[in-house]
Amino acid sequence: MNLSTYKTDSGFLLPSVHSAPPFFTQQPNATTQAVFTEQWTRLILAYARHRRLFILRVEDAEVSSGGEWDEVLRNPRINRRLMSDYLTRIIGIMVSKNLAVYEPAKQTRAVLLYWRLPEEWAEVLHEWVRDPSFPPSSLSISSAPCGSHIILRVQATSTGQMNTILTFYEISDPPVPSALSGIPDSLLRSAIAILAKSGRAQLISISDGDGVRLFPRNVKC
Questions:
Q1: pTM over 0.70
Q2: Apex 199 CA angle, 195 and 201, nearest 5
Q3: Tell me, what DSSP letter sits at residue 79?
Q4: Scanning 31, 35, 40, 206, which has the fewest C-beta atoms within 10 Å of its C-beta?
Q5: Higher pLDDT, 179 or 8
Q6: Using CA atoms in the order 181, 187, 193, 198, what is the torsion angle rounded to 10 degrees?
């Protein structure tokens, strides 16, 4: 069997195991299956990070073609694709390892992927608020609808955003792409909650909804 890496149209380098037909089917040998599951987990998270994809659905393995996950879930060169029942098993294991969370809750067919953990997103958010020029390649968070009632009142250290009020939309969809561009609202909320626990954010009530105020590092509410 000739196994080789392959660069996709999006520029992602698929590992050589992706050229092995058995990789796309569940294996009867528990040890082999555990290895394949770990490889699928790493592959899914790496590809999600490469494409800035946050949601993976079982349906992504069921679409005929043209889906945003096709480059990973299919290999037309060997006529193989990942079946939906196998993907369901993989994402379940990812959830159990805190590498994903079911989104929305109370279902098992779609997950929010943690190619950065919420704790890492919290640091990205805090650094971006402190310095909006922070390189996009270093950190990131998602898009909430324009007009969201959730706001962020910023107390930064040296950026001109002191006491500036920002909506979730302004954070996740800034005029200039940033590390926070495109992140789901639920992940942004998780990041803010983590900052609040460390004294760097304070949830507040305002006239038209909930808000949060961020503080410089090491400053308590």
A1: yes
A2: 50
A3: T
A4: 31
A5: 8
A6: -70
Give the residue among 187, 215, 217, 182 at the shortest CA–CA distance from 201. 215
Kindly give, in sequence order, each residue whose CB lies less than 8 Å from that of residue 203, ignoring residues fewer than 6 positions away. 192, 196, 210, 211, 212
Tokens representing 111?
A: 């997950």
Round to whole Å and give the CA distance between 107 and 55: 14
Which residue, 132, 110, 78, 131, is CA-closest to 184? 110
Own/partner pairs for 146-152, CB < 8 Å, 24+ apart? Answer: 146/173, 148/185, 149/208, 149/209, 149/210, 150/185, 150/189, 150/209, 150/210, 150/211, 150/212, 151/206, 151/209, 151/210, 151/211, 151/212, 152/192, 152/211, 152/212, 152/213, 152/214
- Identify the DSSP state of 146: T
- For the chain, the straight-line distance linking the first and the last C-alpha, in angstroms and rounded, comes to 61
Task: Name the one residue in this structure whose structure tokens are 């043209």.
Answer: 66
**pLDDT mean across residues, the chain:** 81
C-alpha span between 6 and 19 (Å, rounded): 8
Report which secondary-structure segment, H or E, holds 202. Answer: strand 201-206
Angle of helix 30-51 relative to helix 84-96, nearest 10 degrees, comes to 80
With CA atoms as reference, report the closest residue to 126 among 113, 138, 110. 138
